[in-house]
Fold this protein.
Amino acid sequence: MVDERSKGTEEADLSSPPLSPSPSPLPSLLSAKALSKNFGGIRVVDRASLDVRQGSITGLIGPNGAGKTTLFNLLSNFIRPNDGEVIFAGEPIQHLQPHQIAQRGLVRTFQVARVLSKLSVMENMLLAAQNQTGENFWNVWLRPGQSVREERHHRERASELLESVGLAHMAQAYAGALSGGQRKLLEMARALMVRPKLILLDEPAAGVNPTLINQICDHIIRWNQEGMTFLVIEHNMDVIMSLCDRVWVLAEGRNLASGTPAEVQHDPKVLEAYLGQ
Ligand SMILES: Nc1ncnc2c1ncn2[C@@H]1O[C@H](COP(=O)(O)OP(=O)(O)OP(=O)(O)O)[C@@H](O)[C@H]1O
Ligand SMILES: [Mg+2]
């Protein structure tokens, strides 16, 4: 199930580029450089770096409290780092607001899904398209034909995505009526509305039943083959093993290891970090 395109292109370390020019590595889409974050004097992310290659499905794992979600918040600028830098598609993005980052093609989901409970599932999807594209209010009045066409296009895309995550039958239901797992699926589908370049998924499998987890993995692989890059936080190692080309391991806010899923799974440092929990 692993995407073949990115195999054999990994570097051992951010600071040590490959000596051989061939095979040429895929370009980096997102890189975090020595990010740090303190909460009330406690450093929860400590000079963490990672690199997400264009076209990859990259994993981010680590024990509970390792700082994974905080790192996502730093990457998407939901919180500001005390130190460090984030480069997306070749440009620093720290000066941008989260919605501006989304408009550039970097979107994320939350560990506890954030859906608008009083809107229908379909309305949640349509609103995401509007927010992600920064759709102009005046266009609705000045170019009504274009707006109608766009709305039809968004509805088709929303229906297709809801179908793929098994929520098509709930399209008209209030999002507040969804289970925790279904909310996660809605959030993931919403993130995909405008075909972003990179999607950060925070525990997409948590609270989702095993049959649906397999379906989600298959969809992530399909979306990846269509050109989307993923960075996935997940505790479910089967998901990581079946999806990811490369995995970064965080422990106590610091980089512990990185490599193929098989490499990190057998790394004694990684085993110790998990067992020590
Ligand atoms: N807003 C905050 N204020 C204070 N401490 C925080 C805040 N957010 C996170 N922390 C702390 O930072 C540490 C890292 O939390 P984080 O949620 O990033 O971990 P995680 O790796 O995502 O864990 P999990 O696997 O359980 O989701 C934890 O000790 C957490 O309690
Ligand atoms: Mg987390």
